[in-house]
Amino acid sequence: MDKILICDSITKRFGGLIAVSRVSVEVSRGELLGLIGPNGSGKTTLINLISGVLEPDEGRVLFEGRDITKLKPHARVALGISRIFQGMRVYPYLPVYYNIELSARSVFKDARLARSKTIWALTTTKLLAESAELPVNLTPYKLKMVELARALVTNPKLVLLDEPFAGLSPEEVGEVIKIVRKLNESGIAFIIVEHKLRYLMKLVERVVVLNEGRKIFDGSPSEAMNSEEVSRVYLGVM
Ligand SMILES: Nc1ncnc2c1ncn2[C@@H]1O[C@H](COP(=O)(O)OP(=O)(O)OP(=O)(O)O)[C@@H](O)[C@H]1O
Ligand SMILES: [Mg+2]
Fold first, then answer.
1. Which domains does the chain have, with CATH numbers?
2. Residue 66 CB: number of other CB atoms within 10 A?
3. What does the pLDDT read at residue 89?
4. pTM for this prediction
């Protein structure tokens, strides 16, 4: 299958701590991949290495066959890698519409194209009614939708979601899942970091498990559930 992303044996150290240790992960075009592991196992660090917030000490990151290991985050966004952060990253006092349009303009210099992509992203995330609202006045769910819209508006081929279900009600998680499925059907690949495994395991096709910076499992959700090693690191969690 066509690999859109290849992490080739990447390592990231913070002083003496090895946060990500020789991790290799491949993502196919249009795939839905789950990335799980206990607290501190290196999930967010791996997402940072893929989005360009961090540079690995060793190893390479390839996107559509191109070595992007040293590219800055904005250059990766332009190539088609978007992310939403663990926690919120919107401008709280800038109306929702402009929050999203600003992200669009970072990739589309043509104002009309940026505008039409913004309307599309607002529609996809059901934010049209909140276009003029300030994010500071929105619910956590709507804020998450603003983040998602900001990630989608740049025409990504791969979207990285770090704990998209955190702080949401079961109904709201269901809404996020619906939107992710629809976008995935249109060909967008996702890497989703989540602790809420009940929901994640039903959504993704494949799951990568990290423990203490190392990849300990890569396979289907049902195989993961039956893996002794995975159960051991998730003792009492799953
Ligand atoms: N900027 C940093 N400086 C120093 N240490 C860091 C930094 N970022 C992460 N770490 C450490 O690297 C390890 C991996 O952290 P990371 O945030 O990737 O874990 P995680 O799997 O995302 O955890 P969680 O599920 O709690 O979000 C942890 O021990 C963390 O304390
Ligand atoms: Mg994290």
1. 1-80+159-238 (3.40.50.300), 89-155 (no CATH)
2. 10
3. 78
4. 0.95
